[in-house]
Specification:
Radius of gyration: 21 Å
Keywords: NAD, Oxidoreductase
Family: Belongs to the D-isomer specific 2-hydroxyacid dehydrogenase family.
CATH class of the largest domain: Alpha Beta
Strand content: 5-15%
Largest sheet: 7 strands, parallel
Organism: Streptomyces albiflavescens
Helix content: 25-40%
CATH topology of the largest domain: Rossmann fold
Protein name: Lactate dehydrogenase
Shape: globular
Order of helices and strands: EHEEHEHEHHEHEHEHEHEHEHEHE
CATH architecture of the largest domain: 3-Layer(aba) Sandwich
Structural class: alpha/beta
GO molecular function: D-lactate dehydrogenase (NAD+) activity; NAD binding
Strand order of the largest sheet: 8-7-6-9-10-11-12
Number of domains: 2
Distance between the termini: 19 Å
Number of strands: 13
Number of helices: 12
Length: 331
């Protein structure tokens, strides 16, 4: 069977092609799946998508009309797929339910420490042979409080690193993680976590219940000198409200690897174009904000596991097997 893969990064392509060598063949495209590109998949029984591909009603209908029966998403998140429509069309949808949690947890800490210690500003200065220390003062993490919203596998990995810094640990989730409790984490209401934490990191999935979990009220509840990190999903933060708070001079730093309107921007080169997104354009001008392009998962280890799981999802589909990765089973 031939598989068409959308939104494939240059580093990812050889891994996919090598993994699929054998009974199945993959054709990799760097374009993302949209209403305009969905027709390309005509004749392909299976496609593979990335998290920034949009699989709404029209896209899924076009895919189904063209003969696509399997969508193998190369990510854990699946908020970009209308699962009810896929089921109604008789399509199978699978995702990657697990990959290295350390990739995201370590990157979240990279963002947090980069804004804390002004790494980007310092590196820019030294390129110009400006070695002054003015404006570069950070803070020790030791003895301060880390607030972790979402304590699953990634949140737990983040917590272990925080403990290594010697931090006090506060957690919030629908259920306590015994491993985090053993590390010394105290579970508290969200409002208390926001008010008491010096560094807050988001590790919850994006669902209707968590959409804009960090809204204007939540941002106002945080310390003026707090650090906020989001390496999960952009929709967890009300970005307009965040810009408003930043304009008031609040927060030591904000590290964002995701953005709520990143589709059509992230993973693409927009350097020669005018950015029409006024919120993002304003956000990146703040000296205490660092925005990266959804790369927290992007390590050899994690991407290798994502590719392996995607291959397994295709093999399970052709063999009629069902695994925990399946979101919509074969009808």
């Amino acid at each position: 069977m031939e598989i068409l893969a959308f939104g494939v990064q240059a580093d990812e392509k050889p891994l996919l092609e090598k993994a699929f060598a054998g009974p199945h063949q993959v054709h990799c495209l760097d374009v993302f799946l949209t209403e305009d590109t969905a027709r390309i998949a005509a004749g392909y029984e299976a496609i593979s998508t990335s998290v920034n591909c949009g699989l709404g009603h029209r896209v899924l209908q076009t895919l189904a009309t063209g003969g696509t029966q399997l969508v193998a998403q190369r990510s854990t998140g699946f908020n970009n797929i209308d699962l009810e429509v896929a089921e109604r069309l008789g399509m199978t949808v699978a995702r990657v339910s697990y990959y290295s949690p350390y990739s995201v947890a370590e990157f979240a800490w990279t963002l947090g420490m980069a804004v804390n210690r002004r790494i980007v500003r310092a590196a820019t200065r030294t390129r110009d042979f400006d070695f002054r220390l003015d404006g570069l003062m950070g803070r020790d993490m030791h003895g301060r409080t880390a607030g972790v919203l979402g304590t699953g596998k990634i949140g737990e990995a983040f917590t272990r690193i925080a403990r290594g810094f010697g931090m006090n640990l506060l957690g919030w989730d629908v259920a306590e993680n015994p491993a985090c409790v053993e590390l010394g984490m105290k579970y508290v209401p969200k409002e208390q976590l926001l008010a008491e934490s010096d560094l807050i990191s988001l590790h919850v999935p994006l669902m209707p219940e968590t959409q804009r979990l960090i809204d204007a009220a939540a941002l106002r509840a945080m310390k003026d000198d707090a650090i906020l990190v989001n390496s999960s999903r952009g929709g967890l933060i009300d970005t307009q409200a965040l810009v408003t708070e930043l304009r008031e001079g609040r927060f030591t730093g904000v590290g964002l690897d995701v953005y709520e309107a990143e589709a059509g921007l992230f993973f693409l080169d927009k350097s020669l174009e005018a950015i029409e997104d006024d919120i993002l354009a304003r956000l990146v001008t703040f000296p205490n904000v660092l925005v990266t392009s959804h790369q927290a998962y992007y390590t050899e280890d994690a991407v290798g596991q994502i590719v392996d799981a995607t291959v397994k999802n295709v093999l399970d589909y052709t063999a009629g097997r069902r695994s925990d990765n399946v979101l919509v089973p074969r009808s």
